[in-house]
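Same chain as my last thread, 502 residues:
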Amino acid sequence: MQSRLKNAKINIYVGIFTQFIILILSFISRRLFVQYLSVEYLGINGLYTNILSVLSLAELGLGSVASYSLYKPVAEDNKPAILGLLKYFKKLYRIIALVITILGIALTPFLKYIITSDLSQAELIIYYLLFLASTVSTYFAAHNMALLFAYQENRIPKLVKLITAVTQQIIHFIILLVFPNYMVYVSSTIICAIFSNYFLSVITTQKHSYLKTKEIPDYDIPKEYIKSNIKSSSIYKLSLVAINSTDNILISVLVSTMAVGLYSNYVAITSAVQSFISIITIALINGIGNLYAENDKKQTLAAFKSLVLIYHFIACMGAIFFYHILNPFISIWLGKEYLMSNNVIIAICLNFFVLNATTPIWSFREATGQFTATKYIILITAILNILLSVIMGYYWGVTGILIATVVAQALTIIWYEPKILFKNVFEDRQSIYWKKQIKYFICSLICVALCGIVSKFMLNGIIGMALFGIETLIICSIIFYLATCRDEEILKIKLLLSKKNR
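reply #2:
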């Protein structure tokens, strides 16, 4: 337990530091981007990222299955099993890289039906192929990433990412200031991605010297079991991509590619905050996987209940803060011409709230390998999401597309996944979960009302936003603490944060 906590804390600290530096650099880079290039190129950036996320369906959820398959061998220090599995996953990732390359090239003739732009078709295709090359390169180090996650050494790829990001952003600054050419800009990204993957592989091998073994010990790889998990995970992966990675495509088709560029500025802010939260989430998933491998259901459930409280608090505070500062921040950062309507802001905040309030559910699903039990409900969610996005997007534009995601989830996975998790993992009543969530939701509504009153006195500028953020943190902390101060979750959180357990 102490080892898990120590690794999780180190990963979180390193991850937060890394993400903070990358965040500052990315905000400067985006400001220079819109100044020296154009919002149309920004739209292309966001759109191609979404298209390639859809193409990553070929990965079939292998990343989650690989990490899950390695948890037990790593916990038991079973090196023959680790080496055998890594060799197997490395081979699968090579096949995936080839498949994505073929699918990506095959999609090229259809780009003209997705993109609404004044740029030439030849130019758009070249940009797309450069994005494709960058995406494919990531699969050549993916098996090493899975191993590091299983060892709870997320800090290693984070540090490699930091070095690469700093180098990349410096190169981007030079390109934008000296030679503002989008093709050169994208090409530099590919070169940095290739070097990043190479260094990650070298460092992983140096960290775990037994990986240098040329003769892999005999190990009977449970291929059928892995294939079964991949099959179930692939449905989940397909569905998640349909839910999370199609918004920009639909906005481009139903509204305009220019709208994708405007929306991507808001996503840059929310994603920056979400990336910090994800650092904590990923670190915890690795620890949960190890804890579950020990078959301690009582401790696993206790950890889950604590996370439900923490993530609902984060969801509430983040949604309130974004609602009040997104447009003022965009106005200062990029200019008033880049603002979107208040309805879009509400939709963005609602998506942020739902995503984070339900994070403990999908975190435990990932860590405990519940791929098979939930594969069909997530598929239904994906189908509903696309249908509702098309219908609601047609009538209400960007707002409708974003709200459709929340509606589709509310009708399916939000109520179904807790049922499966409590039945298969905790072997307890799911009413425990819903009582907690209802209680926390009432707390959230009180926080929304109080922060709404405080916002009327909010000062202008960055200082005013910072002060409002502090006030939001204080209000949410007081309300949630008063509601939970005697609950076992808050007592456990206090225990974990106490000096005795550091």
